[in-house]
Amino acid sequence: MILVRQLIQQFNPLSLALRLLPGRGRLLMLALAGVTTLLLTGVFGGSLTIVEERLGAQGWVLFPEDVPEERVTIVAIDEQSLAEIGPWPWSRSDMARLVTSLNAAGVQLQIHDIVYPEPREGDDALIAALQTSRGAVIAQVPVLQSAQQVQTGLMTHALTGVSCDASSSATSFIAPHSGFATIAKGHIAPLVDSDGSIRKIPAFVCVDGQAYPTLVISALLQATQATSWQASVTEGDGWFGADQVLRLQAYPGLDIPLDAEGNIRISYQDLPENFMAVSAADVMMGRIEPGLLENAWVLVGATAFGMGDIVPTPYNGSAPGVELQARLLGSLLDTTMPYEPRGSETLLLLLTAMFAAALYGLAGARERFSAFALPVAGLLLPLLAIALHWQLLVSQQLWLGWVMPSLYTLVAASLLLLLEQSRIRAERSRIFGNLNSYLPSDVAREIAYSLPSSSINARRCDVTLLSADLRNFSAFGEARPPEESAALLHFFFVRATDIVERHGGRIQEFKGDGLLAVWDGQNEISARASLAAAQEMLDAINRDMPRQPPSGLEPLALGIGIEQGPALMGSIGPAQRRTHTLLGDTVTIALRIQEMTAELSQPILLGECVARQLIDLKPESQGSFLLNGLRIPHTLFAPANDETTLRRARQEQLNLKVISGGRN
Residue 440: pLDDT above 70? Predict the structure, then answer.
């Protein structure tokens, strides 16, 4: 486990970034964000594509085209028509009546979003009506995205001059029967995404090596009355060109943009209300206004909800499929077909690089600014990417995309924010550690998490104080190099600090060649802990300090004074230069008791308050003294030495009591 933890720490990108220079650490986080983005798009690519499509299409919804479409009219087989004519499917005689009524209304081109696969009674009348019309196109369906093997009817009216190598293909189809062979046809095989939406349709589908155009392209070719449906597919030009361009020989000047798979993207720029629809029953009953359909192109299709030809669109969840054909035909006539430019991936990479540069700059700003700027940028930059996508879609019909730079920005901003917060925490921890090495931990914490103040910030508390001082150190320092004196003093401070902290105390301050240690409370526990620390400190110094002083000098010794009582602890001084201090009579008494150790030749002296807490140890009185600078005499005590303690223990052992019981 230790090895695994070490390996994780060694190869943790965040730890590695913290060890690098700030700029290099941020670059590492940006690179890690790129790798993470690629992994996320690889794992959740399908879901992200749906999100991109749905939110990307909202540009059409927010900024729609509200000009009515007057060239294309939908003749709807709606609920009214089903109620008057009868349930679907209608007889071929009824369809012939509809076609005849449209011819009588002066329709220029009939486009039937309907397949007539099997022969039925009345076919002759329907075929004759279609043949006598000014122009007619009916539907055929190559079966895509299915493993079923179905071949019904006869596929006709293929394009010439195009290759089937990189286009959609099918081996199954449902087509009108051979009686409709002379009637122009186009396929209605859309590509259904995983969420049920239809966003693209193949420009042509290959069946048995023949390329059959979509219904609206067949309508354009039929409108030109071209005898040969010649077409060509070429590669697009430049970054902003389409992957492929379909050109029709009979319709010069029309460039149909295709993606790499040969699909046309459906435009949802127009509001659904832009497409005029009339009921098929009204047409058949002659209830339409005269001239309403004169020279119009009509799309005949089902709009009744129960007929199953319902698809979701960005505007609502249930739109008739014939509306999609109207949208395709309108965008072809206006030459406003949306498409994804060839250089979209490069453009998105450039946009991502710009976002990365912006995040890098924000991360290097001042701590407070970057802490707010990074999360804000993590939200605003994706919105900027979406807004740019919408702008290009609405104004230029370019589908650029937005997920990759947005996802990268969210990941990169999060990682950079994590890095900066970790760096700030590491720096604050380092500062707090340094501060804690000069001050007690609670004082260091209070200073670290509060603002500077010029007022007195102190509190009264009960403490036990230990004052320790190296005797003869000044003379030792005078006779030895300062480096040796510093090493000796460092050794003393390190050992003393370790001993004090192990006994529950803390160092209040180092001053000269002495120190002041503090235990909280004025009780027996603090008294015993401070005395134990003093005795261990004395043993360590006597054992480890140099015993051979320079010639003419007394050996180094340690004097320790211990006392309990109230004190005032806190910070004083101006805001720009504070000092932490401990004030009160107890502090003065502890310092003076320590000074008396040299005069009384006792390494440890106890004040009256501490001695009362240690009465069971029978400290020995050294007399009453008027301490320097004080007006009230104080009685000092010394801990019982080992010989005295041993003698008392033996005396206690001799005070035996006889009790009954036991074995004879």
Answer: no
